[in-house]
């Protein structure tokens, strides 16, 4: 055996073989520069090299191959910077040695991650472009506590997990490595050897900031630094815009299908195109907030984003992180807030995702009675594990912090609150007290809300919660979940059920329109007509309405008037303002050509005017969540299917009267009780010609006289068009 083939003292043959086979538990202990016998030795793995040199200011130093391996080692004089130079035939390549760089993570970060209290994990984990020890590159860090080995792989190392095996950071389960000369745009994954020594499917980065275009699914290095926000004035004043006394009208949007470039193979708009077209459109219609269905990266288009894999990555479908920021900032320039749908309730089991991440049930429960979601065939987070809880809380803060979003609408909260959600007897595990409440998930939601409002006091959080769980929008210190608002699913289900009935039968279901007031102020409610109501065979809003074509449009206009006059903030899914004849299809853009038709354009104009009236009229919004802001005039006129009520604001705000006629029968001289005598302006009439109606009404105003009725001091004769809502505002003076 030649001297060159003899294992030098810098690394044993056993260690070299472990490195060669990707089985070394601590590669930093043997690779890179190490002082042996008072002299620096350099050891490196390069499977493509016939010869390998360590190069420094003193020249090239040939390293010796360790017998039977692709590991090279040898003395390299000096103690400064060196790089590696490989040769094979005529091919020569040079590169920096990742193993000559020390750790990046600090002890405090390690401590906070270990105890699950690091609320900004994205500043430590993931891929960070940086300068480290005088060298440009990217630092990678990932949590995989049960792994035997974790490596960063990509085109830069031929997807060879032996080349950049990471450094384990003790009991935290964090692995890290700084790789020189890796810059923004590089694709990467993690190669993980599980606790039993089995190689796992390549994994995307759980805290990655970018992803490849689906169906490709590697993470992409993205540099989040240096955006240069210009929305300081907006951010200073946004707390008032998100307050329970503010006019909040939300336009819910599925970004891929709102509008498409049909001349360019039907592609979706980019974030920067949406920043102009969507923002201008929603602002023109008077919406105060945009709500995006999930933008965190997801593999399957048909999930609409509700099965996310990359919780820290804005989907590349529309552009890069900075370009998503352009969209948020454009909304802020128009005075509109941005809400994101956020999905902490479950995640898909795609091989590159979180499931069995390090070869164990790491993010999810191992027991399917707790860890498998029967509705969606997905995995459920292990909320009781401190690192998982911290991952979710930190992710919520990430979107608020890095992207200046104004709030989060939390998806499927009910599925988190109950251990027996969608499960039969024997398919779930009770809590420690024998009940069905998921204490750990409740704690995560509370922690998220405490952290979100604590770090960003001007934001809002919203729960999509379909049960009567108490205190959803009550502060945590008062025993609640701590959300700012809750979707009013009961109101939505009852009122849509009523509106779908033939008017001849509505008198027998009158309570469906009035019952919501019994609990309207038990939470801070948003009235949602969301995407869920116009998919999966439910039909469009227009199609739900009974009667002839004219009656369908009139019913829909009357319902929207009822909704905007009713206590509660408003939410409308995109396309509902167009009175679409068919339900939403995520593969197609909205049918914008409908606006050429007076009837469809009229509904759009109605939404614009309802939003303006809602914003401009304090009585319609300042006490949306306060029982003092509402009083029935007549809740019991079931025979005529007429509903009438008063909306009140603060002292000095003009009172508002809303009256709805939900039959196709006109009432030319209906006597309506009024809260005061005098002139009442007809501020809105859903039967107006400009909305596609017949143009019947009260010539702009009614006169109330001092003739008491229904406990009110005055009354007026009012013309009620068929299938209409009218809103009257008291003239001052």
TrEMBL record:
Metabolic or biological pathway, per its Swiss-Prot or TrEMBL entry: Glycan biosynthesis; glycogen biosynthesis
Stretches the record annotates as Disordered: 1-34
Matches recorded under SMART domains: Aamy
Gene3D superfamilies on file: Glycosidases, Golgi alpha-mannosidase II, Immunoglobulins
GO cellular component: cytosol
Domain Glycosyl hydrolase family 13 catalytic as annotated: residue spans: 252-598
Assigned EC number: 2.4.1.18
UniProt entry keywords in alphabetical sequence: Carbohydrate metabolism, Glycogen biosynthesis, Glycogen metabolism, Glycosyltransferase, Transferase
MF annotations from Gene Ontology: 1,4-alpha-glucan branching enzyme activity; cation binding; hydrolase activity, hydrolyzing O-glycosyl compounds
Assembly description: Monomer.
Function: Catalyzes the formation of the alpha-1,6-glucosidic linkages in glycogen by scission of a 1,4-alpha-linked oligosaccharide from growing alpha-1,4-glucan chains and the subsequent attachment of the oligosaccharide to the alpha-1,6 position.
Record-given protein name: 1,4-alpha-glucan branching enzyme GlgB
Source organism phylogeny: Bacteria, Pseudomonadati, Pseudomonadota, Alphaproteobacteria, Rhodobacterales
Gene: glgB
């Amino acid at each position: 055996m030649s001297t060159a083939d003899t294992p030098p003292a810098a690394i044993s043959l056993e260690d070299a073989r472990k490195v060669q086979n990707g089985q070394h538990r601590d590669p930093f202990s043997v690779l890179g520069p190490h002082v042996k016998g008072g002299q620096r030795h350099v050891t490196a793995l390069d499977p493509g090299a016939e010869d390998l040199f360590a190069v420094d200011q003193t020249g090239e130093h040939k390293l010796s191959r360790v017998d039977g391996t692709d590991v090279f080692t040898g003395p390299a004089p000096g103690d400064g910077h060196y790089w590696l130079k490989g040769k094979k035939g005529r091919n020569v390549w040079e590169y920096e040695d990742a193993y000559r760089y020390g750790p990046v993570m600090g002890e405090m970060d390690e401590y906070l991650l270990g105890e699950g209290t690091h609320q900004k994990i994205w500043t430590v984990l993931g891929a960070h472009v940086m300068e480290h020890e005088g060298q440009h590159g990217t630092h990678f860090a990932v949590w995989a506590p049960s792994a035997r080995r974790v490596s960063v792989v990509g085109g830069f190392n031929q997807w060879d997990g032996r080349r950049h095996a990471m450094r384990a950071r003790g009991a935290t389960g964090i692995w890290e490595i700084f790789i020189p000369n890796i810059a923004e745009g590089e694709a990467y994954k993690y190669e993980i050897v599980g606790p039993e020594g089995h190689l796992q499917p390549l994994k995307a980065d759980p805290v990655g900031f970018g992803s490849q275009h689906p169906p490709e699914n590697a993470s992409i290095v993205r540099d989040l630094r240096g955006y240069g926000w210009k929305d300081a004035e907006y951010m200073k004043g946004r707390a008032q815009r998100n307050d329970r006394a503010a006019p909040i009208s939300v336009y819910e949007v599925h970004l891929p299908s709102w509008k498409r470039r049909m001349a360019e193979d039907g592609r979706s708009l980019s974030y920067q195109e949406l920043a102009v077209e969507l923002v201008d459109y929603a602002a023109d219609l008077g919406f105060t907030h945009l709500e995006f269905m999930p933008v965190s990266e997801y593999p399957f288009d048909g999930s609409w984003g509700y099965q996310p894999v990359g919780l820290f990555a804005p989907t590349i479908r529309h552009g890069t992180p900075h370009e998503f920021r352009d969209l948020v900032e454009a909304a802020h320039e128009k005075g509109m807030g941005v809400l994101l749908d956020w999905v902490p309730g479950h995640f898909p089991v795609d091989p590159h995702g979180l499931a069995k991440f390090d070869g164990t049930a790491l993010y999810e429960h191992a027991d399917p009675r707790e860890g498998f979601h029967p509705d969606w065939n997905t995995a459920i987070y292990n909320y009781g594990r401190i690192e998982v809880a911290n991952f979710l809380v930190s992710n919520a803060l990430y979107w608020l912090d890095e992207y200046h979003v104004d709030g989060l609408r939390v998806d499927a909260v009910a599925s988190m609150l109950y251990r027996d959600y969608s499960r039969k007897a024997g398919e779930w595990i009770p809590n420690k007290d024998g009940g069905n409440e998921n204490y750990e998930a409740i704690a995560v939601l509370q922690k998220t809300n405490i952290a979100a409002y604590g770090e960003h006091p001007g934001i809002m959080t919203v729960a999509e919660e379909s049960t009567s769980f108490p205190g959803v929008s009550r502060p945590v210190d008062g025993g609640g979940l701590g959300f700012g608002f809750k979707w009013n699913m009961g109101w939505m289900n009852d009122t849509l059920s009523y509106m779908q009935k033939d008017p001849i039968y509505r008198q027998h279901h009158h309570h469906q329109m009035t019952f919501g007031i019994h609990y309207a102020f038990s939470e801070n409610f948003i009235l949602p007509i969301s995407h869920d109501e116009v998919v999966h065979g439910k039909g469009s809003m227009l199609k739900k309405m009974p009667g002839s074509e004219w009656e369908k449009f009139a019913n829909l206009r009357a319902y929207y008037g009822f909704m905007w006059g009713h206590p509660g903030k408003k939410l409308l899914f995109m396309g509902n303002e167009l009175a679409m004849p068919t339900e939403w299809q995520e593969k197609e853009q909205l049918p914008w050509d409908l606006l050429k038709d007076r009837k469809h354009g009229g509904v759009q104009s109605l939404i614009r005017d309802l939003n303006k009236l809602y914003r401009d009229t304090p009585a319609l919004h300042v006490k949306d969540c306060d029982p003092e802001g509402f009083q029935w005039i007549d809740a019991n006129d079931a025979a005529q299917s007429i509903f009438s009520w008063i909306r009140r604001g603060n002292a000095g705000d003009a009172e508002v009267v809303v009256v709805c006629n939900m039959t196709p029968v006109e009432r030319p001289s209906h006597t309506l009780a009024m809260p005061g005598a005098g002139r009442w302006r007809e501020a809105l009439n859903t039967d107006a010609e400009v909305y596609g109606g017949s143009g019947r009404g009260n010539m702009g105003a009614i006169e109330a006289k001092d003739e008491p009725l229904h406990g009110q001091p005055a009354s007026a004769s009012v013309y009620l068009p068929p299938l209409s809502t009218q809103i009257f505002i008291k003239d001052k003076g």
